[in-house]
Amino acid sequence: MEHPTFKQMMNEVVAYGSCCECGTCVLVCPHNVIDYIDGKPKQVAKATASFDFCGISEGIGCDVCAQVCPRLGIREFDMRDAVLPREPGVYEGLFGRYRRIVAARCKDPEILARCQDGGVVTALLCHGLREGLFDGAVVSAADEAMPAAPKPKVVTTVPDAIASASSWYTYCPNNLALADADRMGLKQVCFVGVPCQITPTRKIQLVDPAFLDNGRKKPKHIERQTKFLKGFGEIVSCTIGLLCTEVFTYEGLMVQKLQGEMGIPLTEVKKFNVKGKVLIYKKDGALVEMNLHRAQEYARPECHHCGDFSAELADISCGGVASMDWTITLLRTKKGEELFDDMVARGLLDVRSMDEFENSMKVLIRLTKKQRERVPVPPGRTPRYVRPESYPTVPADPSR
Ligand SMILES: Cc1cc2nc3c(=O)[nH]c(=O)nc-3n(C[C@H](O)[C@H](O)[C@H](O)COP(=O)(O)OP(=O)(O)OC[C@H]3O[C@@H](n4cnc5c(N)ncnc54)[C@H](O)[C@@H]3O)c2cc1C
Ligand code: SF4
Ligand code: SF4
User: Fold this and answer.
1) Looking at ligand 3, which residue's alpha carbon is closest to its atom 4?
2) Whether the CB of 363 sits within 6 Å of ligand 1
3) Angle at 361 between CA 360 and CA 367, to 5 degrees
4) Which of 21, 68, 200, 246 could bond 299 through an S-S bridge, CB–CB 3.0 to 4.6 Å?
5) Residue 46, class by beta-carbon neighbours within 10 Å (0-12 exposed, 13-18 middle, 19+ buried)?
C-alpha cells in the first residue's frame, strides 16, 4: 500500500500538469493548509514557504490530501476488487467490471425536456429522493453568476434535481460540494460526477486510516485527520459516474470561440451536447453545430492524463456514446443494479438491449482503450502505474 505525500502531490501531480482540478485534496485537508485557487490546490498557510511545503506533513505527518488524489497512489484497476469483487454475475470488460449494460430512457416528460440523453441520471436522483433512499445529491447546476458554466451544488428536492439535468462541458469540482452536504447534516448522498471525481470519492471510502497513527502525533491530531480523511465518504451512499473523454476550457471554448468568433452570447446558451460534433442549443430554439475537432483545440490538457473513460468505480455509469435520447447505462455494483431494477419494476424507465445499440458498444470499447493508452507515464514510474498490465480480451456482455 503506497502512502503518497503532499510534496509528491504538488510535484508529481500539480506541477507535472496532471491535476484534474477535482478539489478533493482541499476538501479533506484537516488543517486548512491548501485552498482551491484557479482550479488547483495552493499552499496558503505560509506565504514565504515554497508551493510544495506543508509544515504539518513534514512535522507530525498527515498527507491526507495525497491519499485521495486520483492521480497518485492506487488507480482504478487497483481498486476494482474492493468495489466490485469477482463473483457470479459480475463481468469484466475493457471498461471495468459490471453486471449489465443496457440502453435506458426515463418516462418523465419533465426530465426528458431538460436532460442530456435518456434522463436516467436525473430519474435516479428523483426516484432516490422521493423514496427516501437519498437525502440529497451532489450535482453540477447552472451558475447564475457565470453564463454557460456549471457550479457544484447539493440538491435535496425533486424540482432542484430536475433543474440540474443536462451536461456542461467545462469542469465543475463536484467533490467540493460534499463539504456543503456535510454542513447540511446529510447522511445519504448520491454523488454524480465525471470519472476523476468518482475515483477520489471511492478513495475516501476505501482508504485505511491506520497509517495516520505514526507515533509522532497526539490522539487529537489522529482523530481530526481521520475525520477529514474518512468523514465525507461516510455520507455518500451511491455514486453515479458520467462517461467522459475531456472537458473544454471556459476561456477558450466559451469566451473565445463561441462568444468571440461565433458571436453567440453566452447568456443565450441553453445547453450543449456532443455527438460526433458539438451541438449548441440556444434559448431561442436555434441549434448551432460546431466541428468537434475545432472544439478539441480548447480541450483541457489535464484531461489527457486521465485513463478512466467510463467511471469504472461508480455504482452506475452513464453515457451517451453514439446514442441519441438514450442513456447507455452500465450497472456495476449490486446496489446500483437493484436501484435501477426497482425503477424498471415501477415503470419509470424504458430499457433496451445493447443488441440494438451495436455502435454504442463499439464506441464504448474504442474510447475506453484510446483513453487508457493516452495517459503519460510520469518520470521514474512504470506503465503499470497508469494502466493495467493486461486487458480482458473479450468483454462479456450478459445482456447480449
Ligand atoms: C464533462 C462531461 C463530459 C462527458 N463526456 C462524455 C463522453 O465523452 N461520452 C459519453 O458517452 N458521455 C459523456 N458524458 C455523459 C453524458 O453527457 C450524459 O451526462 C450521460 O449520458 C447521462 O445522460 P442523462 O440524460 O441520463 O443525464 P441527465 O439526466 O441529463 O443528468 C446529467 C447529470 O450530469 C451532471 N453534470 C452536468 N455537467 C456536469 C459536469 N461538468 N461535471 C459533473 N457533473 C455534471 C448534472 O448535474 C446531472 O446530474 C459527459 C458528461 C459530462 C458532464
Ligand atoms: S498534508 Fe495534511 S495538512 Fe498538509 S496540505 Fe495535505 S491534508 Fe493539508
Ligand atoms: S486531489 Fe484533485 S485537485 Fe488535488 S491535486 Fe489531486 S487531482 Fe488535483
Assistant:
1) 25
2) no
3) 85
4) 246
5) exposed
| Ligand 3: centre distance to CA 20 (Å) | 6
How many angstroms separate the alpha carbon of residue 291 from the centre of ligand 2?
Answer: 43
54 C-alpha to ligand 2 centroid (Å): 6
Nearest CA to ligand 1 atom 45: 140
14 lines ligand 2 (CB under 6 A): no
Mean pLDDT, rounded, for 213-238: 97
What beta strand segments (E) does the chain contain? Answer: 34-37, 40-43, 91-93, 96-98, 100-106, 136-142, 150-155, 189-193, 236-242, 269-274, 277-282, 287-291, 316-319, 327-331, 349-352
Q: What is the grid cell recorded at 227?
A: 475525520
Q: What is the pLDDT of residues 62-110, one digit of tens each?
A: 999 999 999 999 999 999 999 999 899 999 988 999 999 999 999 999 9
- What are the grid coordinates assigned to 3, written together? 502512502
pTM over 0.85: yes
8-state DSSP, 147: T
Show me where the domains of the chain are located.
1-247+300-400
Per-residue pLDDT tens for 106-164?
Answer: 999 999 999 999 999 999 999 999 999 999 999 999 998 999 999 999 999 999 999 99
